Amino acid sequence: MILPWKDERHISHRSFRIVDILGEDTFITGKTFEDCTIYGPAVLVPIDRTTMDQIALDGPLDAIFWEVPEDRMMIIGAVGLIDCTFRRCKFHGLGIGGKRPLLELFARALGVPFPARPDSNTH
Fold it and tell me: Which domain holds residue 30?
C-alpha cells in the first residue's frame, strides 16, 4: 500500500499497518505518532529514545511483551524504533520486544504489573 504521508515526521489521526511505514527498512527513526491506530503483525523493539504515552494494547502483557535475553546483541525480523514517540495510539497485533528492564519500564508507564517470569523449577 502506498501512503503519501508515510515519510512525514509527525503522523496523527491515521490508521495503518506498521510495515507500510517501513518500506524496505527495518527501523523507524525520528517519528511522532499521535492518535493513530497501528496494526501488525509485528514486534516493535525500542532501541533508543522511544516513548509510549497512553497507548492501548489489545491483549495481555505476557503475550505482547517479548523478552530478549541480556546477552543477545542482535534481533532479526523485528521493527526497530529509534527516537520515536507514540501518544494515545492503539496497537493491534503488535508485540513489544526488549530486554527485561526496558519492558518493566513500559509496564510501569502503562500502570500495570510486569508479567512474572515462569518458575524454572516448574514442569
Answer: 11-110
